[in-house]
Amino acid sequence: MRSQILIHPEELSKNWIDRIADAGVTVLGIHPWGGKHAEKSIQQMLEFLKTPEYRGLLDYAAERGLEIEYEIHAAGYLLPRDLFETHPEYFRMNENGERTPDWNFCVSDPKALSFVAKRAAELALALYRSGKRFYFWMDDGKDVHCRCPRCRDLSPSDQQLLVINAMLSEIKKHISDAKMAYLAYFDSLSLPEMIKASPDVFLEYAPMEKYVAKSEDAAQRIAREQAMIGPLMDFFGREDAKVLEYWYDNSLYSKWKKPPKEFHVDREAMAKDIDQYKALGFSCISTFGCFLGADYEELFGAPDIVPFAELTK
Question: How far apart are CA 194 and CA 148, in angstroms?
Answer without folding.
Answer: 16
